[in-house]
Design goal:
The chain is about 25% helix and about 40% strand. About 10% of the residues are buried. It has one domain. Strands 1, 2, 3, 4, 5, 6, 7, 8 and 9 form a 9-stranded antiparallel sheet that branches. It is of the alpha+beta class. It contains 1 helix and 9 strands.
């Protein structure tokens, strides 16, 4: 009985080529999918529509007959972000944002009143409430501010 070994070698070679080709195609498709997901967290121009508006709360300063009320809060328009209160405001224009989570956004923009440098603000907004954290080059606070209401 004569066996055709060249036929068996060719069959084994085709099985190896098919296995390596499938591995390559699956690895390539996984890399392509992971690259498209990383683009989803890119910077978008302006402020998110859901956050636009004015959020504030009433604060008190002074004591006795010199006690007075003032508003402290955040105002966001399509292109600007302003944090106001007692004292100088923190204002940014050329604002863009990146979504971090379900309720968390990171805004960046140029502070145009004093420093004219890029600054970052991290916002957490839930159910008409807003918490902020200003992240500037020399001022990094670990906790969010108190709650502002719309």
């Amino acid at each position: 009985m004569v066996k055709n070994y060249s036929y068996l070698k060719g069959q084994l070679l085709m099985e190896k080529i098919t296995k390596y080709a499938l591995t390559f195609v699956s690895a390539f498709s996984i890399m392509a999918v992971s690259q498209t997901q990383s683009k989803a967290a890119s910077w978008h121009y302006g402020t998110p529509k859901i956050l636009r508006g004015t959020y504030n709360r009433t604060m008190h300063a002074g004591s006795g007959k010199y006690r007075f009320k003032f508003k402290q809060g955040v105002q966001m328009t399509r292109r600007t972000y302003t944090a106001f209160g007692l004292g100088d405001p923190f204002s940014m224009n050329r604002v863009s944002y990146k979504r971090y989570g379900r309720y968390t956004y990171l805004l960046r923009g140029v502070e145009y009143v004093y420093s004219h440098k890029w600054n970052y603000v991290k916002l957490r907004a839930t159910h008409y409430k807003l918490k902020e954290r200003i992240i500037t080059p020399h001022y990094a606070e670990k906790h969010f501010s108190k709650v502002y209401y719309r």
